[in-house]
Amino acid sequence: MALAHGIPENHQRTLVLEQAEAEVVAAIREAGTLSRTDLARQLGYSRSNITSTVQGLLERHIITEVGPGESQGGRRPVMLSLNGKLGYVVGIDLGATSLDMALADFNGHLLERSSEPADVRDAPEKVLGRMTEIALEFLQRRRIQPEQVLGIGVGVPGPVQFSSGLLIAPPLMPRWEAFPIKDFFRDTFPAARVVVDNDVNVMAIGELYAGAGKGIDNFLFIKIGTGIGCGIICKGQIYRGSDGCAGDVGHICIDYNGPVCHCGNVGCLEAMAAGPPIAARAEEAARRGQSEFLAQRLAAKGALTAKDVSEAAATGDQVANQIIKESGRMIGGMLAGLVNFYNPRLILIGGGVSKTGYKLLSAIRQAVLRRSTALSTRDLHIDLSSLGDDAGVVGAIHLALEYVFTVK
Ligand SMILES: [Zn+2]
Question: How far is the CA of 274 from the centre of ligand 1 (A)?
Fold first, then answer.
Protein backbone atom coordinates (compact mmCIF):
# COMPACT_ATOMS: atom_id res chain seq x y z
CA MET A 1 0.00 0.00 0.00
CA ALA A 2 1.27 3.47 -0.82
CA LEU A 3 0.64 6.85 0.75
CA ALA A 4 -0.13 9.96 -1.26
CA HIS A 5 2.76 11.49 -3.24
CA GLY A 6 3.98 8.03 -4.23
CA ILE A 7 5.89 7.40 -1.02
CA PRO A 8 5.72 3.70 -0.17
CA GLU A 9 4.46 3.06 3.32
CA ASN A 10 7.48 1.07 4.29
CA HIS A 11 9.87 3.72 3.06
CA GLN A 12 12.52 2.72 5.55
CA ARG A 13 12.96 -0.56 3.66
CA THR A 14 13.07 1.36 0.37
CA LEU A 15 16.06 3.24 1.65
CA VAL A 16 18.21 0.17 2.26
CA LEU A 17 20.67 -0.20 -0.60
CA GLU A 18 23.18 -2.80 -1.78
CA GLN A 19 26.77 -1.53 -1.96
CA ALA A 20 26.71 -1.01 -5.74
CA GLU A 21 23.33 0.73 -5.53
CA ALA A 22 24.67 3.05 -2.83
CA GLU A 23 27.64 3.96 -5.04
CA VAL A 24 25.33 4.73 -7.97
CA VAL A 25 23.04 6.84 -5.79
CA ALA A 26 25.98 8.75 -4.25
CA ALA A 27 27.51 9.46 -7.67
CA ILE A 28 24.20 10.72 -9.09
CA ARG A 29 23.54 12.83 -6.02
CA GLU A 30 26.94 14.48 -6.22
CA ALA A 31 26.66 15.24 -9.94
CA GLY A 32 22.92 16.03 -10.10
CA THR A 33 22.43 13.95 -13.24
CA LEU A 34 24.53 11.20 -14.86
CA SER A 35 24.08 8.76 -17.73
CA ARG A 36 24.65 5.00 -17.46
CA THR A 37 27.87 5.45 -19.45
CA ASP A 38 29.06 8.15 -17.01
CA LEU A 39 28.32 5.82 -14.09
CA ALA A 40 30.18 2.87 -15.64
CA ARG A 41 33.22 5.07 -16.35
CA GLN A 42 33.18 6.83 -12.99
CA LEU A 43 32.58 3.81 -10.76
CA GLY A 44 34.58 1.27 -12.77
CA TYR A 45 31.72 -1.24 -13.07
CA SER A 46 30.90 -3.05 -16.32
CA ARG A 47 28.16 -1.57 -18.47
CA SER A 48 25.89 -4.59 -17.86
CA ASN A 49 26.43 -4.35 -14.13
CA ILE A 50 25.46 -0.66 -14.16
CA THR A 51 22.43 -1.36 -16.36
CA SER A 52 21.01 -3.92 -13.93
CA THR A 53 21.78 -1.84 -10.84
CA VAL A 54 20.12 1.20 -12.43
CA GLN A 55 17.12 -0.92 -13.44
CA GLY A 56 16.60 -2.02 -9.83
CA LEU A 57 16.79 1.57 -8.59
CA LEU A 58 14.34 2.73 -11.29
CA GLU A 59 11.84 0.00 -10.34
CA ARG A 60 11.98 1.10 -6.71
CA HIS A 61 11.51 4.76 -7.77
CA ILE A 62 14.75 5.78 -6.06
CA ILE A 63 16.03 7.30 -9.30
CA THR A 64 14.25 8.52 -12.44
CA GLU A 65 15.13 9.08 -16.08
CA VAL A 66 15.19 12.78 -16.94
CA GLY A 67 15.44 13.29 -20.69
CA PRO A 68 18.48 13.12 -22.92
CA GLY A 69 21.78 14.77 -22.02
CA GLU A 70 24.59 16.16 -24.21
CA SER A 71 25.68 13.86 -27.00
CA GLN A 72 29.28 12.69 -26.85
CA GLY A 73 29.43 11.72 -30.51
CA GLY A 74 26.56 9.26 -30.80
CA ARG A 75 23.00 9.07 -29.62
CA ARG A 76 22.19 11.52 -26.80
CA PRO A 77 22.30 9.51 -23.56
CA VAL A 78 19.37 9.19 -21.15
CA MET A 79 20.24 11.03 -17.93
CA LEU A 80 19.41 9.73 -14.47
CA SER A 81 18.61 11.77 -11.38
CA LEU A 82 17.41 10.97 -7.89
CA ASN A 83 13.64 10.87 -7.48
CA GLY A 84 13.16 14.20 -5.70
CA LYS A 85 9.74 13.14 -4.41
CA LEU A 86 11.01 10.01 -2.69
CA GLY A 87 11.10 12.00 0.51
CA TYR A 88 12.07 15.28 2.11
CA VAL A 89 14.83 16.50 4.38
CA VAL A 90 15.09 19.37 6.84
CA GLY A 91 18.34 21.31 7.17
CA ILE A 92 19.04 23.24 10.38
CA ASP A 93 21.92 25.66 10.90
CA LEU A 94 22.04 26.84 14.49
CA GLY A 95 24.45 29.70 15.06
CA ALA A 96 25.33 31.36 18.36
CA THR A 97 22.66 34.01 17.72
CA SER A 98 20.70 32.78 14.69
CA LEU A 99 18.59 29.88 13.49
CA ASP A 100 18.47 29.15 9.76
CA MET A 101 16.32 26.34 8.41
CA ALA A 102 15.25 24.89 5.08
CA LEU A 103 13.13 22.10 3.66
CA ALA A 104 14.38 20.33 0.55
CA ASP A 105 13.40 17.42 -1.67
CA PHE A 106 15.66 14.43 -2.33
CA ASN A 107 17.43 16.34 -5.10
CA GLY A 108 18.51 18.96 -2.59
CA HIS A 109 16.23 21.61 -4.11
CA LEU A 110 15.20 24.09 -1.42
CA LEU A 111 11.42 24.32 -1.07
CA GLU A 112 11.21 26.46 2.05
CA ARG A 113 13.72 28.66 3.89
CA SER A 114 13.61 30.62 7.14
CA SER A 115 15.95 32.72 9.24
CA GLU A 116 15.41 34.21 12.70
CA PRO A 117 17.36 35.22 15.82
CA ALA A 118 18.10 32.53 18.40
CA ASP A 119 20.12 32.21 21.57
CA VAL A 120 22.09 28.99 22.09
CA ARG A 121 22.47 29.81 25.76
CA ASP A 122 18.75 28.92 26.09
CA ALA A 123 17.72 25.43 27.21
CA PRO A 124 17.98 22.89 24.38
CA GLU A 125 14.30 21.95 24.76
CA LYS A 126 13.31 25.52 23.95
CA VAL A 127 15.56 25.90 20.89
CA LEU A 128 14.78 22.40 19.55
CA GLY A 129 11.08 23.00 20.17
CA ARG A 130 11.23 26.11 17.99
CA MET A 131 13.03 24.11 15.28
CA THR A 132 10.22 21.56 15.33
CA GLU A 133 7.59 24.32 15.00
CA ILE A 134 9.34 25.84 11.98
CA ALA A 135 9.73 22.45 10.31
CA LEU A 136 6.02 21.71 10.81
CA GLU A 137 5.14 25.11 9.31
CA PHE A 138 7.23 24.25 6.24
CA LEU A 139 5.42 20.92 5.86
CA GLN A 140 2.00 22.48 6.29
CA ARG A 141 2.67 25.03 3.56
CA ARG A 142 3.80 22.26 1.19
CA ARG A 143 1.13 19.73 2.25
CA ILE A 144 3.80 17.22 3.24
CA GLN A 145 3.28 14.75 6.10
CA PRO A 146 5.82 14.54 8.96
CA GLU A 147 6.31 10.85 8.04
CA GLN A 148 7.65 11.95 4.65
CA VAL A 149 10.59 13.69 6.29
CA LEU A 150 13.31 11.06 6.01
CA GLY A 151 16.30 13.05 7.15
CA ILE A 152 17.20 15.98 9.39
CA GLY A 153 20.66 17.53 9.29
CA VAL A 154 21.64 19.77 12.20
CA GLY A 155 24.70 22.02 12.41
CA VAL A 156 25.55 23.34 15.89
CA PRO A 157 28.23 25.80 17.03
CA GLY A 158 30.20 23.45 19.26
CA PRO A 159 32.27 20.25 19.35
CA VAL A 160 30.14 17.25 18.36
CA GLN A 161 31.01 13.61 18.93
CA PHE A 162 29.79 12.57 15.50
CA SER A 163 28.90 8.93 16.25
CA SER A 164 26.48 9.86 19.06
CA GLY A 165 25.49 13.35 17.86
CA LEU A 166 26.21 14.72 21.33
CA LEU A 167 27.84 18.05 22.09
CA ILE A 168 30.83 17.58 24.38
CA ALA A 169 31.85 20.53 26.61
CA PRO A 170 30.46 23.16 24.22
CA PRO A 171 31.78 26.55 25.42
CA LEU A 172 29.03 28.66 23.78
CA MET A 173 26.15 26.39 24.79
CA PRO A 174 26.94 24.68 28.11
CA ARG A 175 23.31 23.65 28.75
CA TRP A 176 23.50 21.38 25.67
CA GLU A 177 26.24 19.19 27.14
CA ALA A 178 25.40 15.60 26.08
CA PHE A 179 21.75 16.54 25.35
CA PRO A 180 20.20 13.84 23.09
CA ILE A 181 19.36 16.03 20.08
CA LYS A 182 18.68 13.01 17.83
CA ASP A 183 16.00 11.64 20.17
CA PHE A 184 14.23 14.97 20.48
CA PHE A 185 12.84 14.83 16.90
CA ARG A 186 11.76 11.17 17.02
CA ASP A 187 8.14 11.66 18.13
CA THR A 188 7.39 14.37 15.55
CA PHE A 189 9.39 12.91 12.66
CA PRO A 190 9.37 9.14 13.23
CA ALA A 191 10.83 8.26 9.80
CA ALA A 192 13.70 10.75 9.88
CA ARG A 193 17.30 9.87 10.47
CA VAL A 194 18.84 12.76 12.39
CA VAL A 195 22.49 13.69 11.84
CA VAL A 196 24.22 16.26 14.06
CA ASP A 197 27.54 17.87 13.16
CA ASN A 198 29.67 20.87 13.93
CA ASP A 199 28.51 24.03 12.10
CA VAL A 200 31.78 24.50 10.22
CA ASN A 201 31.78 20.93 8.90
CA VAL A 202 28.23 21.50 7.71
CA MET A 203 29.25 24.67 5.83
CA ALA A 204 32.12 22.81 4.16
CA ILE A 205 29.65 20.11 3.06
CA GLY A 206 27.41 22.86 1.61
CA GLU A 207 30.28 24.21 -0.48
CA LEU A 208 31.24 20.67 -1.54
CA TYR A 209 27.81 19.79 -2.94
CA ALA A 210 26.40 23.13 -4.00
CA GLY A 211 29.09 25.81 -3.90
CA ALA A 212 32.62 26.68 -4.98
CA GLY A 213 33.94 23.37 -3.63
CA LYS A 214 31.99 21.27 -6.15
CA GLY A 215 34.40 18.92 -7.88
CA ILE A 216 37.36 19.90 -5.67
CA ASP A 217 38.82 16.95 -3.75
CA ASN A 218 40.85 18.72 -1.07
CA PHE A 219 39.78 22.05 0.38
CA LEU A 220 39.31 23.91 3.64
CA PHE A 221 36.39 26.02 4.82
CA ILE A 222 37.30 28.59 7.48
CA LYS A 223 34.50 30.12 9.50
CA ILE A 224 35.32 33.41 11.21
CA GLY A 225 32.59 34.58 13.55
CA THR A 226 32.37 34.55 17.33
CA GLY A 227 34.94 31.76 17.08
CA ILE A 228 37.17 30.41 14.34
CA GLY A 229 36.87 26.87 12.99
CA CYS A 230 37.85 24.86 9.95
CA GLY A 231 35.94 22.25 7.92
CA ILE A 232 38.24 19.83 6.13
CA ILE A 233 37.25 18.24 2.83
CA CYS A 234 39.61 15.36 2.07
CA LYS A 235 39.25 13.30 -1.12
CA GLY A 236 35.76 14.67 -1.70
CA GLN A 237 34.48 13.91 1.80
CA ILE A 238 34.34 15.71 5.10
CA TYR A 239 37.19 14.64 7.40
CA ARG A 240 36.10 14.62 11.06
CA GLY A 241 39.13 13.01 12.70
CA SER A 242 39.02 10.29 15.37
CA ASP A 243 36.36 11.85 17.59
CA GLY A 244 34.64 14.40 15.37
CA CYS A 245 36.52 17.52 16.37
CA ALA A 246 39.12 17.83 13.59
CA GLY A 247 39.60 21.40 12.40
CA ASP A 248 39.24 23.18 15.75
CA VAL A 249 41.91 25.66 14.66
CA GLY A 250 40.58 28.57 16.74
CA HIS A 251 42.62 27.38 19.72
CA ILE A 252 45.96 27.17 17.94
CA CYS A 253 48.30 29.44 19.90
CA ILE A 254 49.64 32.35 17.89
CA ASP A 255 51.10 34.37 20.79
CA TYR A 256 52.41 32.90 24.05
CA ASN A 257 52.03 36.32 25.64
CA GLY A 258 48.54 36.82 24.22
CA PRO A 259 45.25 37.33 26.06
CA VAL A 260 43.41 34.54 27.91
CA CYS A 261 40.94 32.62 25.74
CA HIS A 262 37.60 31.29 27.01
CA CYS A 263 39.16 27.80 26.71
CA GLY A 264 41.56 28.75 29.51
CA ASN A 265 44.76 28.93 27.42
CA VAL A 266 46.51 32.10 26.31
CA GLY A 267 47.08 33.54 22.86
CA CYS A 268 44.55 31.42 20.92
CA LEU A 269 43.86 32.63 17.37
CA GLU A 270 40.18 32.90 18.28
CA ALA A 271 40.90 35.17 21.26
CA MET A 272 42.97 37.48 19.05
CA ALA A 273 41.38 37.55 15.59
CA ALA A 274 37.67 36.54 15.76
CA GLY A 275 34.65 38.86 16.01
CA PRO A 276 34.84 39.72 19.75
CA PRO A 277 38.54 40.82 19.76
CA ILE A 278 37.92 42.84 16.58
CA ALA A 279 35.05 44.60 18.37
CA ALA A 280 37.13 45.07 21.55
CA ARG A 281 40.01 46.66 19.59
CA ALA A 282 37.54 48.97 17.88
CA GLU A 283 36.00 50.03 21.20
CA GLU A 284 39.45 50.80 22.56
CA ALA A 285 40.26 52.93 19.49
CA ALA A 286 36.92 54.70 19.83
CA ARG A 287 37.58 55.52 23.48
CA ARG A 288 41.03 56.86 22.63
CA GLY A 289 39.46 59.14 20.04
CA GLN A 290 41.32 57.53 17.14
CA SER A 291 38.23 57.09 14.97
CA GLU A 292 35.32 59.46 14.77
CA PHE A 293 33.05 56.92 13.08
CA LEU A 294 33.67 54.27 15.74
CA ALA A 295 33.36 56.81 18.59
CA GLN A 296 29.97 57.96 17.31
CA ARG A 297 28.78 54.38 16.84
CA LEU A 298 29.95 53.45 20.34
CA ALA A 299 28.20 56.45 21.86
CA ALA A 300 24.97 55.55 20.04
CA LYS A 301 24.97 51.79 20.79
CA GLY A 302 27.03 51.38 23.94
CA ALA A 303 29.03 48.54 22.37
CA LEU A 304 30.59 47.70 19.00
CA THR A 305 30.52 44.57 16.86
CA ALA A 306 32.72 43.33 14.00
CA LYS A 307 29.94 44.52 11.70
CA ASP A 308 30.41 48.10 12.92
CA VAL A 309 34.13 47.82 12.19
CA SER A 310 33.34 46.55 8.72
CA GLU A 311 30.97 49.45 8.09
CA ALA A 312 33.56 51.93 9.36
CA ALA A 313 36.15 50.41 7.01
CA ALA A 314 33.73 50.76 4.11
CA THR A 315 33.65 54.53 4.70
CA GLY A 316 37.45 54.60 4.47
CA ASP A 317 38.10 54.70 8.23
CA GLN A 318 41.84 54.01 8.61
CA VAL A 319 41.67 52.60 12.13
CA ALA A 320 38.92 50.15 11.20
CA ASN A 321 40.88 49.10 8.12
CA GLN A 322 43.95 48.50 10.23
CA ILE A 323 42.00 46.35 12.73
CA ILE A 324 40.61 44.19 9.92
CA LYS A 325 44.01 43.87 8.26
CA GLU A 326 45.60 42.84 11.53
CA SER A 327 42.96 40.17 12.08
CA GLY A 328 43.46 38.91 8.51
CA ARG A 329 47.22 38.81 9.03
CA MET A 330 46.85 36.63 12.15
CA ILE A 331 44.35 34.28 10.49
CA GLY A 332 46.51 34.10 7.37
CA GLY A 333 49.58 33.28 9.46
CA MET A 334 47.78 30.30 10.98
CA LEU A 335 46.40 29.28 7.56
CA ALA A 336 49.92 29.30 6.10
CA GLY A 337 50.70 26.50 8.54
CA LEU A 338 47.59 24.59 7.47
CA VAL A 339 48.54 25.05 3.79
CA ASN A 340 52.04 23.66 4.41
CA PHE A 341 50.54 20.77 6.35
CA TYR A 342 47.54 19.92 4.17
CA ASN A 343 48.23 21.28 0.64
CA PRO A 344 44.59 22.14 -0.20
CA ARG A 345 43.54 23.36 -3.66
CA LEU A 346 41.09 25.89 -2.23
CA ILE A 347 40.38 27.77 1.00
CA LEU A 348 36.94 29.31 1.43
CA ILE A 349 36.34 31.95 4.09
CA GLY A 350 32.86 32.26 5.61
CA GLY A 351 31.07 33.26 8.81
CA GLY A 352 29.91 36.67 10.01
CA VAL A 353 33.33 38.35 10.13
CA SER A 354 34.02 37.33 6.52
CA LYS A 355 31.43 39.94 5.56
CA THR A 356 34.15 42.52 6.15
CA GLY A 357 34.95 41.29 2.64
CA TYR A 358 37.92 41.84 0.42
CA LYS A 359 40.08 43.78 2.90
CA LEU A 360 40.12 40.80 5.21
CA LEU A 361 40.53 38.41 2.30
CA SER A 362 43.49 40.25 0.83
CA ALA A 363 45.27 40.40 4.21
CA ILE A 364 44.72 36.63 4.59
CA ARG A 365 45.99 35.97 1.04
CA GLN A 366 49.12 38.05 1.58
CA ALA A 367 49.99 36.30 4.84
CA VAL A 368 49.46 32.84 3.32
CA LEU A 369 51.54 33.65 0.23
CA ARG A 370 54.33 35.07 2.35
CA ARG A 371 54.57 32.14 4.69
CA SER A 372 53.61 29.00 2.74
CA THR A 373 55.92 27.01 0.49
CA ALA A 374 55.99 27.89 -3.22
CA LEU A 375 54.63 24.58 -4.49
CA SER A 376 51.72 24.55 -2.04
CA THR A 377 50.50 28.00 -3.15
CA ARG A 378 51.09 27.66 -6.91
CA ASP A 379 47.54 26.46 -7.63
CA LEU A 380 45.93 27.50 -4.35
CA HIS A 381 42.86 29.72 -4.43
CA ILE A 382 41.62 31.63 -1.40
CA ASP A 383 38.14 33.07 -1.70
CA LEU A 384 35.06 34.10 0.22
CA SER A 385 32.37 31.45 0.71
CA SER A 386 30.29 31.17 -2.45
CA LEU A 387 27.11 30.33 -0.52
CA GLY A 388 27.43 33.07 2.11
CA ASP A 389 24.58 32.95 4.64
CA ASP A 390 23.20 29.81 2.96
CA ALA A 391 26.35 27.67 3.42
CA GLY A 392 25.20 26.20 6.73
CA VAL A 393 21.61 25.47 5.83
CA VAL A 394 22.46 24.06 2.39
CA GLY A 395 25.18 21.96 4.02
CA ALA A 396 22.71 20.66 6.62
CA ILE A 397 20.39 19.55 3.80
CA HIS A 398 23.22 17.66 2.10
CA LEU A 399 24.42 16.22 5.42
CA ALA A 400 20.93 14.79 5.92
CA LEU A 401 20.87 13.45 2.34
CA GLU A 402 24.22 11.70 2.89
CA TYR A 403 22.61 9.57 5.59
CA VAL A 404 19.04 8.91 4.39
CA PHE A 405 20.08 5.67 2.69
CA THR A 406 21.37 2.69 4.63
CA VAL A 407 23.93 0.43 2.98
CA LYS A 408 23.33 -3.31 3.52
ZN1 LIG B 1 41.34 28.97 23.18
Answer: 11
